[in-house]
Amino acid sequence: MGGDRHRLAADGAIHVVAGVLSDARGRILLARRTAGRDLAGAWEFPGGKVEPGETPLQALDRELHEELGIRIDRAEPLIAVPQAYPDKRIVLDVYRVGSFTGKAQGLEKQALAWAPPDKLATYPMPPADRPVVAALTQASLCLVTPEPEPGADPDVFLRQIDAALAAGVTRVQLRVRSLDAASLRALAIAVKQRCDRQGAQMLINGEMALALELNCGLHLPAAQLRTLTARPLPAGQPVAASCHDAEELRLAQALDLDFAVVGPVAKTATHPEQSPLGWRAFSGLREGASLPLYAIGGLGPADLATARRHGAQGIAAIRGLWPAQPPRAAARRR
Ligand SMILES: Nc1nc2c([nH]c(=O)n2[C@@H]2O[C@H](COP(=O)(O)OP(=O)(O)OP(=O)(O)O)[C@@H](O)[C@H]2O)c(=O)[nH]1
Ligand SMILES: [Mg+2]
């Protein structure tokens, strides 16, 4: 609710707040937009437009009180998604409501549903909500592996993978161009085993045949993305792409890819020749797409909150997520 008065963000976008409410079983509350409003029939996170003079949390508390009859005790920022619709631009500013008082009811005749997180993606939702669902259900840290040192013992590389997984990485893009086919295949099998063991997801960069053989994901460099006319793997296997501009993002979305990695956001040691996008341009790209994005380029786990504020579901990094020192082999530890 909220009538016609609403607050515009500094760049002219409509500021919308929405809440993620969970029940004791971890299910998440969705509300169905009623007939006669924009995006009628779509499922959404309850909320609405911020009014002049309100803070985002005051607006969220008011909206959830009007729409559901509850009051917020505690809420934390989850992700803010800039999104361009045909008739307007919004920023969907989503909060995880840690605790609330009252029992949620559909006070505006809207249907409500408590959805298990793994079922969220099956509800038809507005485009701005897709990155929100990704932020709730997918990896926030995506490691892109550095090239193995020439001639180095592959075990050192694998121990570093283990350390990165132990530190919280749950998605790994194996990006290796310097090895011959047999060594790459052996390394990919070993990395996949480690990811499987830790419940992490592996995508291999550029190697479609290996992705099929190992039943893992595929990450497309932008040049390879541009050669495709259809999604290269079945729906169960994730496919992602590196994108640098709106056209590559459109293509990734048209091919129904699962996510894109966009950057470089900041200056990065591994690609010093590329000039950085900056967060403002990242948000501009975010606004025109609805697939989940990872921000990459000079970032680390400490940048996750900033990335989420600009609509990234997570950060991807080589150096930022790679253990600085190869951990010693277990056998040599005393
Ligand atoms: N509440 C909410 N709005 C969303 C979501 N996703 C999304 O694109 N929107 C868009 O954000 C805009 C504001 O939402 P709203 O219609 O709930 O605003 P409101 O409660 O103040 O009601 P109003 O229709 O009386 O102005 C709509 O254009 C809506 O389509 C979402 O998950 N939750
Ligand atoms: Mg509303």
Automatic annotation (TrEMBL):
Biological processes annotated in GO: DNA repair; DNA replication; thiamine biosynthetic process
Cofactor requirement: Mg(2+)
Top-level enzyme category: hydrolase
Pfam assignment, any one: NUDIX
Family, similarity comment: Belongs to the Nudix hydrolase family.
Keywords from the UniProt entry: DNA damage, DNA repair, DNA replication, Hydrolase, Magnesium, Metal-binding, Mutator protein
Source taxonomy: Bacteria, Pseudomonadati, Pseudomonadota, Gammaproteobacteria, Lysobacterales
EC code(s) of this entry: 3.6.1.55
NCBIfam families named among the record's database cross-references: PRK08999.1
Keyword ATP-binding: no
GO molecular function, one term: 8-oxo-GDP phosphatase activity
Protein name (database record): 8-oxo-dGTP diphosphatase
Ranges for domain Nudix hydrolase: 12-138
Chemical reaction(s) catalysed: 8-oxo-dGTP + H2O = 8-oxo-dGMP + diphosphate + H(+); 8-oxo-GTP + H2O = 8-oxo-GMP + diphosphate + H(+)
SUPFAM superfamilies linked: Nudix (SSF55811), Thiamin phosphate synthase (SSF51391)
